């Protein structure tokens, strides 16, 4: 998995098969969630931490996962807690 700056969006019908949802990561630290997603789906090239109340665009990228976290009071959102099921999109 590359870093957050690789934002080339792959769209349907080029999307590879694979796990698309990680409900088991809710309640974990964002950095831990990112590591799990990277190990299970190395084709995911963009993992983005977003505050849980962020307005998210409706575009779909099959190589991107947004991890919604509770960043209130966190210096680094990677240390914040995952508040919603991370999913490809």
From TrEMBL:
Q: Which InterPro entries match?
A: Prot_inh_pot1, Prot_inh_pot1_sf
Gene3D superfamilies from the entry? Trypsin Inhibitor V, subunit A
| Key words of the record | Protease inhibitor, Serine protease inhibitor
What Pfam families does the record point to? potato_inhibit
**GO annotations under biological process?**
response to wounding
Q: Which GO MF term does the entry hold, naming one? A: serine-type endopeptidase inhibitor activity
Asked if the record carries the keyword Membrane, the reply is no
Instruction: Give the family this protein belongs to, as stated in its UniProt record.
Output: Belongs to the protease inhibitor I13 (potato type I serine protease inhibitor) family.
Q: What is this protein called?
A: Uncharacterized protein
């Amino acid at each position: 998995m590359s870093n957050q700056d690789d934002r080339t969006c792959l769209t349907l019908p080029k999307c590879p098969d694979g796990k698309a949802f990680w409900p088991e990561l809710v309640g974990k630290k964002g950095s831990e969630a990112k590591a799990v997603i990277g190990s299970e789906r190395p084709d995911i090239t963009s993992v983005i931490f977003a505050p849980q109340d962020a307005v998210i665009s409706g575009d779909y990228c099959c190589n991107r996962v947004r991890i919604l976290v509770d960043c209130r009071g966190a210096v680094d959102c990677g240390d914040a807690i995952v508040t919603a099921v991370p999913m490809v999109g």
